[in-house]
Write a structure and sequence with these properties.
CATH topology: Spore Coat Polysaccharide Biosynthesis Protein SpsA, Chain A
Number of helices: 8
CATH architecture: Alpha-Beta Complex
Helix content: 25-40%
Number of domains: 1
CATH superfamily: Spore Coat Polysaccharide Biosynthesis Protein SpsA, Chain A
Largest sheet: 7 strands, mixed
Radius of gyration: 17 Å
Structural class: alpha/beta
Distance between the termini: 39 Å
CATH class: Alpha Beta
Strand content: 15-25%
């Protein structure tokens, strides 16, 4: 195992937002540490979004045992988008990868997505994970398929699976985006408005083995319609300048 101190500048920061995932975070941490080992210095930034179970205590212990693991906590539940933003703000690397904390994502995909981003000559892309074989209940698969089709038709964001938690992007570019709960599901459209290319990468998806999902199909649908209207307004009212060279 590579020896890394807290002072090493990470090449990548993996941001993982969690809420009541006490049964999963230890395995997710171990698997992520092992997967990212070949990349050189990196860090894992957990953001606990107001958990009421032992999740924070487990993460404190993991952070004390390995300087590559860090923990940031919200005093109350603020939502996944705000938790991701909190993690990005706390991150020390120029490049960010986001990963769900329920164990359904494969951290090895993070490595492949980071390499795809770094190989994009002259561009700072958004690399979006696309789950080709989802291991979720049928009701969720149907609801997601409908939502993705509607969103793509309206926004023309060219991403078939914006709900996938696996994303890779440059820190400074993400922090220019408008902040609202639900923004994590609209990153392709938002990044595109700021002139960033999109790279879709097929990723693995595993069945949840412990814990429960924090979302319902109906809840996602109702909130998603309002969010979509907001994103339409934002993209129409956002006119960033084209990037040019300079000091």
């Amino acid at each position: 195992m590579q020896v890394q101190s807290a002072e090493d500048t990470p090449r990548a920061s993996v941001v993982i937002a969690v809420l009541d995932e006490a049964e999963n975070v230890e395995a997710v941490t171990a698997e992520t540490l092992a997967a990212l080992e070949p990349l050189g210095p990196f860090e894992i930034v957990f953001v606990d979004d107001g958990s009421t179970d032992p999740t924070p205590d487990i993460l404190k212990r993991l952070a004390a045992a390995d300087p590559r693991v860090r923990l940031v906590r919200h005093d109350r539940r603020c939502g996944k988008s705000q938790a991701v933003r909190t993690g990005v703000l706390a991150a020390r690397a120029d490049w960010i990868a986001t990963l769900d904390g329920d164990g359904q994502n494969d951290p090895q995909d993070v490595v492949e997505m980071l390499r795809a981003a770094w190989a994009a000559a002259g561009a700072a892309p958004l690399v979006a994970g696309v789950r080709v074989r989802r291991n979720d209940p049928r009701s969720r698969l149907v609801a997601t398929r409908i939502a993705n089709g509607f969103r793509q038709a309206v926004l023309q964001d060219h991403c078939p699976d914006t709900g996938c938690g696996l994303k890779v992007f440059r820190r400074e570019d993400f922090l220019l985006l408008p902040v609202f709960e639900g923004m994590h599901r609209f990153l392709p459209a938002l990044f595109a408005r700021y002139g960033h290319p999109l790279i879709n990468r097929e990723v693995r998806h595993r069945a949840r083995t412990a814990g429960v999902s924090k979302y319902t199909n109906l809840g996602r649908a109702l909130v998603g319609v309002v969010d979509l209207l907001g994103v339409i307004w934002l993209t129409r009212r956002t006119h960033p300048p084209k990037r040019t060279g300079g000091a």
